[in-house]
Design goal:
11 helices, disordered C terminus
Length: 318
């Protein structure tokens, strides 16, 4: 059974289309603009001699991008709008190949870029649709050129006498195979990235839920709970501890426990590894006197760590 196509949120699709339009303008400006500059210096480029048609291509892209921006702002069905842009780009690539020699043109790789864009934006279905359109247009262009039905700009002559038909068939077949291979690989990678992002978002939701549950449990504990980091700085101070020590958590958070509660200094120094290992019969809890603000002296019970527990920690660390 075929896997369903990943659903693309409208906001995410709109962001991809905006980046796509920007890259299109930048690439075409660089490609055709550089060729015009080279022609001024060298009198000829890979486009052959720059003609009016080449300038029209640049103007066409700029005008089309302006139209796309307006449509993107008001369109409610961005999926069909994305397909429209990609199909127009396929036609545009065909026009570039036509204007640069047809069979001679070196710009057939531009189809590959369009197919990669389709796979990233629309995943596998989009990639295969655009690769099919590219195959049809490229095959027809080369066949019409071969049989002299059309004469591409910059073409040096006829190819019916220069090449045999199987050569043309081989060129078209290799390019079509490359188009579909690129569509499959790029869409596979795009779907894997999408799948990983979805799984990561799901795990983040689970982590957020666990944090909320953990905070709820800690806040509901009737006993005071204090957690320290590796530097003995307070990183957790629950409401029961606030009530017992008559201080707010934000007053002690991030401070070393010896600074926040000096009366615990002796207690903390007595639970070092060496003292624990010397005394295997330490009690589970010890009572420490604490003077509250009303000058009432009470005893607070603190757990005394067992030596076996610290020995296990030391084994894991070593």
């Amino acid at each position: 059974m075929a896997k369903p196509e990943p659903k693309i949120p409208q906001s995410e699709l709109a962001g991809r289309l905006q980046v796509f339009m920007l890259l299109r303008v930048a690439f075409v400006s660089l490609l055709l603009g550089t060729s015009i500059f080279i022609q001024i210096k060298e009198n000829q480029t890979y486009f052959g001699y720059i003609q009016t048609f080449h300038y029209l291509l640049i103007v066409f892209v700029y005008f089309l991008t302006f139209v796309y921006v307006i449509i993107l702002k008001w369109s409610k069905n961005l999926l069909w709008f994305a397909y429209l842009q990609l199909l127009v780009d396929t036609l545009f690539v065909t026009a570039i190949i036509f204007s640069t020699g047809g069979i001679e043109s070196i710009f057939s790789f531009l189809y590959v870029l369009t197919i990669i864009n389709a796979s990233i934006i629309l995943y596998r279905r989009g990639g295969f649709i655009i690769s099919s359109c590219s195959s049809i247009l490229y095959g027809l262009l080369l066949a019409f050129h071969y049989y002299n039905i059309i004469k591409p700009l910059g073409s040096k002559g006829t190819y019916g006498a220069e090449y045999r038909s199987f050569h043309l068939f081989y060129v078209i077949l290799v390019n079509i195979a490359a188009f579909y291979l690129v569509a499959y690989l790029s869409s596979f990678l795009a779907e894997q990235v999408k799948k990983g992002r979805v799984e990561l978002d799901a795990k983040q939701i689970d982590i957020d839920k666990l944090e909320v549950l953990n905070e709820s449990i800690i806040n509901s504990i009737s006993s005071g709970l204090i957690a320290l980091d590796d530097h003995n700085c307070i990183i957790l101070f629950n409401p029961a501890a606030e009530e017992f020590f008559e201080t707010r958590a934000n007053h002690v958070f991030g401070r070393q426990i010896e600074q926040a509660f000096p009366f615990l200094t002796d207690y903390l120094s007595d639970i070092g590894f060496s003292s624990i290992e010397k005394n295997e019969k330490n009690p589970s809890f010890i009572n420490i006197p604490y003077l509250k603000r009303n000058n009432k002296n009470i005893f607070s019970g603190f757990p005394w760590p067992r030596s076996e527990f610290y020995q296990e920690i030391r084994k894991d660390i070593s």
